[in-house]
Write a structure and sequence with these properties.
By secondary structure, the chain is mainly alpha-helical. The protein has a single domain, classed as Transferase(Phosphotransferase), domain 1 (Orthogonal Bundle), CATH 1.10.510. The protein is about 30% helix and about 5% strand. The protein is built from nine helices and seven strands; from the N terminus they run E-H-H-E-E-E-E-H-H-H-E-H-H-H-E-H. It has a three-stranded antiparallel β-sheet with strand order 1-3-4. Strand 3 and strand 4 form a beta hairpin. Helix 2 (about 20-40) runs antiparallel to helix 4 (about 105-120). The longest helix has 20 residues, at about 20-40. The chain is globular, with a radius of gyration of 19 Å. It catalyses: L-seryl-[protein] + ATP = O-phospho-L-seryl-[protein] + ADP + H(+); L-threonyl-[protein] + ATP = O-phospho-L-threonyl-[protein] + ADP + H(+). Belongs to the protein kinase superfamily. CMGC Ser/Thr protein kinase family. CDC2/CDKX subfamily. Its EC number is 2.7.11.22. This is cyclin-dependent kinase. Keywords: ATP-binding, Kinase, Nucleotide-binding, Serine/threonine-protein kinase, Transferase.
Length: about 300
């Protein structure tokens, strides 16, 4: 493999500002094109994350670490749900699905898209336990909850509460049987939450991110469909890789800052419900009043 100077995770940790919108589009287009190539050959990567995306000083990226990659088919075969690093793991895997396809990689694309916009992982299920305070009816302290459940709570906060109308059959997944969810939820809240979290993202960008992070795997676009999305055709257009800035290389023997991040799953770490039901019924209490879209106002003096 060619030598590449950076991985996106380490690079973003050292950058003062996030990538420009034109640069984000270029990186996302390259990554999606690579994922589309894999899926067209019936290969799932199953561990897409910024630390597995390498970039050279010409703005060109390559996907690395195929240790969890597997062939799949249609219908999908029975596979382990112990795949994908926690922060980039799709909700169907968290809920125990053992039959899945390309949509798990597409979810990871959505998480990486959000990370490129802010330089921060979008759903940090291990460390952002403070988000649990928004759910007042959990049966036990946040510190006692399994990691996968903390991640699921964050996903529901950002992407909405699943229902049979938005995600048919999700209640039949092993880890969904013990969840107490509100009887109704407003699907329009999802877009409002994403707009509030990414106020500078355009309408087309919000639409793309929302579709990539659809709770229902069947509702997520394919990688080929993502490449045709209007987000990439609006201004600013994707930047030519030859115009990318260069950064000092950290791929040599220099001492690197150690940042604690979750690792890919290992054998024996299957998520389990540790006794009792988990109540999500209050997760969107007063959300209509709390969440507003992005924007600003001018005050004339």
């Amino acid at each position: 493999m060619d030598f590449l100077e950076h991985d996106l995770k380490t690079l973003q940790e050292d950058m003062l500002e996030a990538f420009l919108p034109s640069e984000t589009k270029t990186l996302l287009l390259q990554l999606t094109s690579a994922v589309d190539y894999l899926h067209s050959d019936w290969i799932l990567h199953r561990d897409l994350k910024t630390s597995n995306i390498l970039m050279n000083n010409r703005g060109q990226i390559k996907i690395a670490d195929f240790g969890m990659a597997r062939y799949y088919g249609d219908p999908p075969p029975k596979l382990t749900q112990l795949v994908v690093t926690l922060w980039y793991r799709a909700p169907e895997l968290l809920l125990g699905a053992d039959k899945y396809g390309a949509a798990v990689d597409v979810w990871s694309l959505g998480c990486i898209f959000g990370e490129l916009l802010t330089k921060q992982p979008l759903l940090q299920g291990k460390n952002e336990v403070d988000q649990l305070s928004k759910v007042s009816t959990l049966p036990r302290p946040a510190s006692d909850l399994p990691k996968w459940l903390k991640q699921e709570i964050q996903i529901f906060e950002l992407c909405g509460i699943p229902s049979e109308s938005t995600w048919p059959g999700f209640k039949r997944l092993p880890n969904a049987r013990s969840l107490r969810l509100p009887a109704t939820s407003n699907p329009k809240l999802t877009g409002a939450v994403i707009r509030a979290k990414f106020p500078l993202l355009t309408g087309a960008g919000t639409d793309l991110l929302s579709s990539l992070l659809s709770l229902n795997p069947a509702a997520r676009p394919t990688a080929a469909e993502v490449l045709q999305h209007p987000y990439f055709k609006e201004d600013p257009r994707p930047k030519n890789t030859a115009m990318f800035p260069t950064f000092p290389s950290k791929a040599g023997q220099e001492k690197r800052r150690k940042v604690l991040t979750p690792e890919a799953p290992k054998r024996g770490e299957a998520p389990k419900m540790a006794g009792g039901d988990v109540d999500f019924s209050g997760i969107f209490a007063n959300r209509e009043e709390e969440q507003v879209g992005g924007g600003f106002s001018l005050r004339l003096v």
